[in-house]
């Protein structure tokens, strides 16, 4: 048996309960990971609250589920057909939805796992998979950032944003990071060339930019496009306004519909994690070009309260749940 944080319904953190469950058996192409640490991200808030409503259709809640995607730990058991991992291997990556990382053991597909970076602790490794992969997809793949370009990262101190700043810098860009007053030093510390307090100034006035990575989700599409070069790229990662009919997705859908009719590149990012992305991120870590900032660690019992501090722009860097001290 194991301890796990089970989501029993949609709503607030009161829908989460610490329970005893049977350790999951790995299926074909899967392993069971003994979880040392589990990263939290704003997407967990959407899953917990079931917003926007399409989330409930895409990932229905049937009989409860264990939340959490990011994990780092050691292989506990291997499933049929698995040859690239053995019991005891140190790994990090993304767990199977429903048998998530907020548990002492979790299932994971080997297609979404990689060896843990040697230079990172389990806590640091658990902070990387979802948020850093999203940043990689946004900056490198969607925006196609190149050396010498000017890049604006909105929400530069957040889970995705602080990785986006580092990845854009590694690609040789001039990076302008926007965040709130209390997070300015954090964004400076990760290498931003210029940091703007959006509570006292408008970062869009510093344009035009070759690329804007918007992880906040609050600015109008029209405003963002005006701050772009005529052939610049806008990547929409965040979609937070709760009052919007689609929970903020309307802006992203509008960008996708408009994209074929403009010289600007307007991207509604739909990120996915895989082994190659994790290996690419590991290479950046090994070169000292990427490092997660851990804002807070919490125990499994404290996970519900920690999740309430995420989303809606309130999160800072990464929060990680520590399940074992290794």
UniProtKB/TrEMBL annotation:
<dbReference type="InterPro" id="IPR020843">
    <property type="entry name" value="ER"/>
</dbReference>
<feature type="domain" description="Enoyl reductase (ER)">
    <location>
        <begin position="11"/>
        <end position="321"/>
    </location>
</feature>
<dbReference type="Pfam" id="PF13602">
    <property type="entry name" value="ADH_zinc_N_2"/>
</dbReference>
<dbReference type="InterPro" id="IPR013154">
    <property type="entry name" value="ADH-like_N"/>
</dbReference>
<dbReference type="Pfam" id="PF08240">
    <property type="entry name" value="ADH_N"/>
</dbReference>
<dbReference type="InterPro" id="IPR002364">
    <property type="entry name" value="Quin_OxRdtase/zeta-crystal_CS"/>
</dbReference>
<dbReference type="InterPro" id="IPR050700">
    <property type="entry name" value="YIM1/Zinc_Alcohol_DH_Fams"/>
</dbReference>
<dbReference type="InterPro" id="IPR036291">
    <property type="entry name" value="NAD(P)-bd_dom_sf"/>
</dbReference>
<keyword id="KW-0560">Oxidoreductase</keyword>
<protein>
    <submittedName>
        <fullName>NAD(P)-dependent alcohol dehydrogenase</fullName>
    </submittedName>
</protein>
<dbReference type="InterPro" id="IPR011032">
    <property type="entry name" value="GroES-like_sf"/>
</dbReference>
């Amino acid at each position: 048996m194991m301890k796990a944080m089970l989501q029993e319904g949609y709503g607030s953190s009161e829908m989460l309960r610490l329970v005893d469950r049977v350790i999951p058996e790995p299926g074909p192409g899967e392993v069971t990971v003994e979880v040392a640490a589990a990263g939290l991200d704003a997407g967990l808030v959407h899953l917990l609250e079931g917003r926007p409503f399409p989330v409930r259709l895409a990932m229905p809640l049937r009989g409860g589920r264990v939340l959490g995607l990011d994990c780092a730990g050691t292989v506990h058991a291997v499933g049929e057909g698995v040859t690239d991992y053995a019991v005891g291997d140190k790994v990090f990556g993304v767990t199977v939805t429903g048998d998530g990382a907020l548990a002492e053991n979790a299932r994971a597909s080997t297609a979404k796992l990689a060896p843990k970076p040697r230079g990172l602790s389990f806590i640091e490794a658990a902070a990387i998979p979802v948020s850093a992969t999203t940043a990689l997809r946004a900056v490198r793949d969607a925006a196609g950032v190149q050396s010498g370009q000017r890049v604006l990262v909105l929400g530069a101190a957040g889970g995705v944003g602080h990785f986006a700043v580092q990845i854009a810098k590694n690609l040789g860009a001039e990076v302008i990071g926007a965040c709130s007053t209390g997070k300015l030093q954090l964004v400076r510390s990760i290498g931003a060339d210029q940091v703007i307090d959006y509570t006292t100034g408008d970062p869009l006035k510093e344009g035009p930019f070759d690329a804007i990575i918007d992880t906040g989700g609050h600015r109008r599409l029209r405003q963002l496009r005006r701050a772009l070069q005529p052939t610049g790229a806008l990547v929409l990662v965040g979609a937070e306004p709760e009052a919007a009919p689609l929970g903020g997705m309307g802006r992203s859908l509008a960008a996708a519909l408009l994209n074929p009719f403009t010289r600007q590149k307007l991207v509604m990012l739909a990120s996915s994690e895989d082994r190659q992305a994790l290996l690419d991120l590991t290479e950046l870590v090994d070169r000292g070009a990427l490092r997660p900032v851990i804002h807070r660690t919490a125990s499994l019992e404290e996970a519900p309260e920690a999740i309430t501090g995420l989303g809606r722009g309130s999160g800072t860097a990464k929060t990680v749940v520590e399940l074992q001290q290794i």
